[in-house]
Amino acid sequence: EDWKYVAMVLDRLFLWIFTLAVVVGSAGIILQAPTLYDERAPIDVRLSEIAYAAAKPRPPPPPR
Q1: How far is CA 3 from CA 6, 7, 9, 10, 37, in A?
Q2: Total-model pTM
Q3: pLDDT in 10s for each residue of the chain, 64 residues
Q4: Are 45 and 51 in contact (CB under 8 A)?
Q5: Distance, CA of 33 to chain centre
Q6: Residue 39, Cα to own-chain centre: how many angstroms?
Q7: CA separation for the pair 4, 51 (Å, rounded)
Q8: What is the pLDDT of residue 34?
Q9: CB-based contacts of 55: which residues, under 8 Å, 6+ apart?
Q10: 36 alpha carbon, distance to own chain's centre
């Protein structure tokens, strides 16, 4: 019976170690993304005529 308790404790310990490793590893990968710290405008916004037309203010409608 003692070995079952030891196995349960080790299983729980390895579960916490695995969970911590996954969370820290995922956060490390996500935080290393170069676009996360890039302040420049996206190239499709800078070069796209559709995005430029959508960003331009529209003139007021003519009076009726």
Answers
A1: 5, 6, 10, 10, 51
A2: 0.56
A3: 899 999 999 999 999 999 999 999 999 999 998 888 888 877 776 777 766 666 666 677 788 7
A4: yes
A5: 9
A6: 16
A7: 64
A8: 86
A9: 45
A10: 9
Backbone angles phi, psi at 27, to 5 degrees: -65, -40
Tokens of 9: 């404790």
- What is the model's pLDDT at position 12? 98
- Show Cβ contacts of residue 36 under 8 Å, excluding neighbours closer than 6 positions: 30
Question: What is the distance between the alpha carbons of residues 43 and 16, in angstroms, rounded to a whole number?
Answer: 43
> Both tokens of residue 14?
């390895």
CA distance 55 to 53: 5
